[in-house]
Amino acid sequence: MKLLIKNGRLIDPARGLDRIGDLATAGDRIVALGEVPRDFSPARTIDATGLVVAPGLVDLAARLREPGHEHEGMLESELAAAAAGGVTSLVCPPDTDPPLDEPGLVEMLKFRARKLSRCRVFPLGALTRGLAGEALTEMAELTESGCVGFSQADAPVLNTLTLQRALQYASTFGYTVWLRPQDPWLGKGVAASGAVATRLGLAGVPAAAETVALFTLFELMRTTGARVHLERLSSAAGVELLRRAKAEGLPVTADVSINSLHLTDVDIGFFDPALRLSPPVRQQRDRDALRAALADGTIDVLVSDHTPVDSDEKTLPFAEATPGASGLELLLGLALHWGEQAGLPLTTTLSRITCDPVRVLGPAIGTLAASAGRLVEGGVADVCMFDPAARWRVGDATLVSQGKHTPFAFASSGFELPGRVRATLVAGTVAYEATA
Amino acid sequence: MLSRRNPQLNANGELIHLLSIEGLPRAVITQILDTAGTFLSVSERDVKKVPLLRGKSVFNLFFENSTRTRTTFEIAAKRLSADVINLDIARSSTAKGESLLDTIANLSAMHADMFVVRHAESGAPYLIAQHVAPHVHVINAGDGRHAHPTQGLLDMYTIRHFKGDFTQLSVAIVGDIVHSRVARSDIHALTTLGVPDIRAVGPKTLVPGDLAGMGVRVCHDMAEGIRDADVIIMLRLQNERMSGAMLPSAGEYFKRFGLTADKLALAKPDAIVMHPGPINRGVEIDSSVADGRASVILPQVTFGIAVRMAVMSTIAGNEA
Fold first, then answer.
1. Cβ pair B119:A317 closer than 8 A
2. In A282-365, which ranges are continuous DSSP H helix?
3. A310 carries an active-site annotation
4. Which ipTM score applies to this complex?
5. How much is the pTM?
6. H helices of A181-304, where?
7. pLDDT single digits (tens) A129-166
């Protein structure tokens, strides 16, 4: 089908393009950008006056809860949520039930996702069998079945020798290992160590839980040559270590979640279980450091860390509540909000959720790496159209995801999100369109 | 983020639940202590009852066992003429099926007017208070490491009884402060009432430096911590912390941080010694001190009933 998107503000963050113009698609490709030939005859024309026409968003951390946790989310609902959030590609961690440690499971997930054609799904394979941190998975087989990297999700590798071997083996084939830096023993608490956790009597997670793990990882990267993507940095001290590792030339990239970018432990208030998050949100100076690092590119990518959690698992005393929050539909708005506050050009803000995550994925996504997260003639037609002036209130009814819990719900935060997605194209097909 | 209203106060600033001492205005605390004073005489009469809560049902809901605290709440409620229902809900039975909020919903359907809740998780009474009907009141009888506000109030009553003015006092709290809900409630109460010098005393594993953020002076030396103190509050050392990664042994702990007559001599001559109970003789406190002239441990228990009567009657009279 041929589509013509007229008179939008076209943005391609990768080359700093920001201009008013038209965009034409045919099949799954963008065939014209800026000026569209007069003889182009679209099957449908969309008026994008006043809208930003950007590449579809790429979210490097979104849990779909399939297989195993279907009561908390499933492909249908969560990929619909992705499309409603303007997300056209997402990476899902392997902590499903069973974990993604066998090619058959990955193929089934990819097949189911492709049939829904709402969003491209790139699974991370389990680094170790059953995420138990003991035996390596068949990484080459898993890669052939569609995995774009290997991760332990939130499960630890207790044995440092096993971790070293996993990094060695992965680097043999050039696979990227995705790890959340957290020492398993120091990381046992439920809130960031500090004045709030002390006052509320909540078990703390010190910043050292992150830095101790980072020191170990960087040292193992030096000896193995493995490429590592650090998931969900949370502390100022962690940012500083990352900065030094990058300056040294280690092959490392990193992301931060929308939660750590916008919230602090003070937001826990009176034990609000919506703030039960992993990693825990820390103090103001940590948040400031994370925001500055994302702005200057030390942290490469902003992720939603989307984790749908059933209501029964959230209406519990703080420490017993399941960690995590819904985020796919908030990624754009919270990126824009950060960009506005940081005084960044829209192209830079959008980079962190479009072309930068694609750069992290690199050759693992094959030919898509050339044009996903970008707007280019001849490239894939993954497009997010949004109204930058619209503001909206997050609430149960406004979320498509099965997970309704978020610290950014208007009822508790009083916060209106900027930017409303009007339409999302995946491979030239309309995956989402706002009603009226 | 919106500033959320303290859930234990209504729009007029009146106490509807007692969840924590943090955030309570000084006037509210003082009023409860004054009311407790009037109830003290009730307990000394032949007929130890007043009809303030007649016809009301008070549910003692203990998700964590505590015979002593539950008993004092039961006595307090009965002296106010309430009907008291005791439920000892071991955590294992809730783990089997019913969720915390389902338990509360069921008991609310039995027309409970007040829940007295003890729970192993910090913040559990907040969750309950947010889900009960407007006329139902919640009293926190101890949640995790977070708060034990009636203990904090009875400690304040005790200090006021023996010392009068708060604004000239030095108070030392000694022991396992990091895991202690009593210490947190005491610290909030003492700072609110204007105590200028509060010391938190113990080894770094039990008294980490970031406690200073609560407005106390952190001391890792017992002699420095209790020197010239007017009030010494000793905390119970839980059995599971006596050996392991927190402390090597009860014996070594007693040598360094146990309160003996020798160490007590460093405090002011008229210093009082308090303890929330039950005491571990020879672990945190020597028998000669626990039974000695400075000890006010048993008066604390007596005052505790009057203070709990004051809390119950105060919140029962306020509408959400």
1. yes
2. 284-296, 331-342, 346-351, 355-361
3. no
4. 0.93
5. 0.95
6. 195-200, 208-224, 236-248, 258-262, 284-296
7. 999 999 999 999 999 999 999 999 999 999 999 999 99
